[in-house]
Amino acid sequence: MKTLTITNQKGGVGKTTLVINLAQFATIEHKHKVAVIDLDTQGNASWTLAADVVANTGNIFFDNKIDSLNASRDLNVISSDYRLANIEKIDVEQIADNLKAIQKKLQEQNVDLFIIDTPPSMGNALVSSLLVADYVLCPIELEAFSLQGVHKMRNAINNIKTLNSDLTELGLLPSRVENRNATHRRQLHEIQQSFPQLICPYSIFNRSSIADAVSERTWIGNNKKTSARKAAHELSDVTNWILQRIELA
Ligand SMILES: Nc1ncnc2c1ncn2[C@@H]1O[C@H](COP(=O)(O)OP(=O)(O)OP(=O)(O)O)[C@@H](O)[C@H]1O
Ligand SMILES: [Mg+2]
Fold first, then answer.
1. Residue pLDDT, tens place only, 86-104
2. How far is the CA of 109 from the centre of ligand 1 (A)?
């Protein structure tokens, strides 16, 4: 099993949208067995993927119920519950140990891919998710100051790498990209210059059909409208690229 943390300290860059789509495409198109844990108290991934919830974060971090975690579905979601806010009061090592216990349980049940959605702040949830991950991928928005945010994120990841030497950076995935937006084009160019090895060869474009599928709790692959098919095709390409990088395709 491979564990992939999706993160960026900046809010609203498309982390949760990627988590949801990657989970759906990996399950439906690649027939992988997937688990998602929502470590964000906002609970957005939990809300969209509500039909696939098998446990909640309170069960994992406060109720000692990891042993009874049942991941028999194709997609298995551990949703965030109201007690997740208290995670900031628990020792990071303890949270990481709980996450490792979940990983063991999921591995025993033949889960291929474990995806961690993180909140937009450098707290215990984010740090512990990086301590237990094999891979980290950072969606980025191509707005003004995005380069500064990337530097901050990379510093944080490099610090964690001293504690988790197995952590591999998949890189920076431009998200919510508008081709006709001059700022986006300029920012993409700057980031390509600054981080040539880290910028992903694919982007996720800003498309209302993507936001609609997330808010309607549907899979975009089932939407036959032309614009949605284009978006689904792009998301499928991003999924293929990620799965290849983590040796699941
Ligand atoms: N490719 C896209 N096209 C159109 N809308 C998008 C796209 N990606 C994300 N959005 C929208 O942008 C908003 C923020 O996206 P999302 O929740 O995925 O970001 P996030 O990084 O998880 O945010 P947070 O940091 O608050 O957790 C949402 O309303 C979502 O529907
Ligand atoms: Mg989010």
1. 999 999 999 999 999 999 9
2. 31
